[in-house]
Amino acid sequence: MAFLRPKGRGALRRLARCLLAITLLGAAEARAAAPSREYQLKAIFLFNFSQFVAWPAGSLGDAQAPFVVGVLGNDPFGDYLDATVLGEKIGGHPMVVRRYRRVEDVGDCQVLFISGSEEGRLEGIIARLGGRNILTVGDAANFSRSGGMVRFVMEEGRIRLKIDVQAARSAGLTISSKLLRAAAIVTREEE
Amino acid sequence: MGFRSGPMNPPARQQDAKPFRPGGAGGRFAIAVAAALLAFAAACPRASAQSEPLLQPSDLKKLSVEELMDIDVTSVSRHAEKLSETASAIQVITSDDIERSAATSIPEALRLASNLEVAQIDSRQWAIAARGFNNLFADKMLVLMDGRSVYTPLYAGVYWDVQDTIMEDIDRIEVISGPGATQWGANAVNGVINITTKSAKDTQGGLVVVGGGSELEDSEEVRYGGQLAPGVYYRAYAKYFDRGNSDLPDGASATDAWRMGRTGFRIDADKGDGTVATLQGDYYDGTVTRMGPADILMSGGNLIGRWTRELGDQSEVSAQAYYDETYRKIPNSFTQTLNTYDFDFHHRLPLGKRNDITWGLGYRLEADDITNTPAEAFLPAKDSERTFNTFVQDEITLVRDRLHLTLGSKYEHYNFTDPEFEPSARVAWTPSSNQTVWSAVSRAVRVPSRIDLDLYEPATPPYQVAGGPGVVSEKVNAYELGYRRQVTPDVAVSLATFYNEYSNLRGLQPLNPPAAFPVDVASGLRGESAGGELTADWRVTAAWRLRAGWTELRVNSEPEPGSIDRVSGQSIALDPNHQGQLRSMLDLSAAWQLDAALRYVGPITNRAVPGYTEGDLRVGWRPLPAWELSIDGENLLHDHHAEFGPAGSRREIGRSIFTKVEWHF
Fold this sequence. Notes:
By secondary structure, chain A is of the alpha/beta class. Chain A has six helices and ten strands; from the N terminus they run ααββαβββαβββαβαβ. Chain A folds into two domains: 1-30; 37-185, Rossmann fold (3-Layer(aba) Sandwich), CATH 3.40.50. Chain A has helices at 6-26, 37-52, 80-85, 122-129, 165-170, 177-181, and strands at 53-54, 67-72, 89-90, 93-100, 111-114, 135-138, 150-155, 158-163, 174-175, 184-185. Chain B is globular and about 80 Å long. The chains are: A alpha/beta, B mainly beta.
């Protein structure tokens, strides 16, 4: 039974050990990650929302003021979101990305992605943002229930939107029917 | 670790396979594959150390919201990211894959995983294994349904004829080839099959499926789901089917038609406060006709409770308890009643920034009562097996998003064997977001089952088979190396290679050599296996998807040095050296689907089962959102073909056509 010859066996075992070592060594070259495809697409959605939502006149400040896409909490997008908004303008306002560690840090901002890292504090965060003209976006399971406006849900590997129109309206935002057609409309109570 | 949901991996492409020569080609094949992979892995990361976004923002911004919503992100989503970083050979069968196949049962659906050997023995019996040693009593797989272990301690294998549910309610089937002992549980020596059904929340409303055909003669399924309170959902189902006879090699009926009725429920509560609870149960009853002896009767039921609480971002605790009862009466052979009580607890917690710890413990009591017959006996007739296990695993982030090392060990204590440690080390290196190289070294054991320890033939002395007083646990040391790559957003490939060394495999030892009989069961064999599992997934257009898989496998066993095990003088392996499949899923329009599959399984030389190629075809038509009509053709290329059984008592599997109507309300 040549297949069981000790010689071949030892060689394979050595090979297996070698491979482990090489795998470990190779890591020295590691670099910063691109986000997963899911978050690449979500970054594109964040950009798209700027096209389908109307903010109250004057809420953006003067013409020089930027249109801010904010990320609160752990940033899942890496520099992909920056690449997405690079060179884009909304009604003359240049689009920029800002990142915030705490809700207290959120300054002028039009679209705010609230990261999954904030899941446990969502209600407090959204309550604190209440009254400001900020479109809140998130993907935590309790996002709509906590009063968030646009929630990403995954269905069979695809991104779906759940939008709470009332929550957006009470923040002075009007969401285009084009976007609403592609989304499921929810209310906080139903969720 | 039943309630763990894992990631997914796409299946495969055909590759030329060298014919197996007994002179050691198997070992050379494994070395060649491993060497090629090593060269590739060593060259690749340098070429693409720069992380490359899979999709350019400028391209995506041109798409409409609807088009964006149509992009499948599973291949690299949060779950899948976990998957793509998973250091094991995992393939996932989704509910969509099942719907698009001609599968009408769980074993048929398992054919979708190209890393499994799936052979139909007769109308109801299947031999299903990963990485070799396949058999009707294949005993090296852990199979779970919603966290409930379904292999029987009688022979450490699965009675596939009683594992079922409404096919539309299956959420996913994860198939891991290779040992999963640390993370999963006992018996995960060569692989894990983890079947998960949908949450009751995802099966709201009514469903009626009625069908009929040539093998599955008639099938009726009814399910209804509703809401009990805010956040609390339920479903209840019932199903019944009649399956026809398999064929004798001359085409005559093998008289093994059978029927089964089944009912069950599931309640899921998720009130959004971080606590999720599930209660579910099933009951079934069935009858199998036979050529000579009286009908086989089988029935059983189970009740599972599961509770999970999130403690923070990366931390949760979960507990699960279940009761399972099975009854099987095989006239002229034996009758067994088995009661299983199982409890599991898991806790996951981060430790510092780099360590993700999971630990847990479990206890299982399996008590059975066997009514023996004069021809054969399990002695003692009543027995109980108590198992205690505890495990700890640490997923260490060596380089963020790039390099992860998972170390763990399980400790198992049985009332009848020495304690067993099952350690493993797995490393996953993600040099860029679209590729992962992984490797693992692990050890797993299969503790003796009743068929190993307690089988006597005849039931009274003098015995021809005299139990297995000296049987110890089978052990495997496994070495694995794999590579996954998302070549383009539409093409994914993966390769998993392995080399396994087995010791203390079960054999039969003559008690008065050189006389071949009597024998006792002994742990006198050792074995080796090596192989590679290649898969490819290509989304040709938004409406057309191709998947392919090719698996090479070499398995051998021989007596341990000094062993007098001569009864198993030839290798006990009954595995094809090659197998492959190609699947096509095509949306002709919004209402019409056309799906096809072709599979090739090489000959099983130890048993003189010829190789075969078979094809399936499915046409689905959804004239209205609530109505679907489909015609499934299975094994269309031959009138009947053999897949496994020994010549002489071999049954063959016939061509079958099945039509069904599905109504959602």
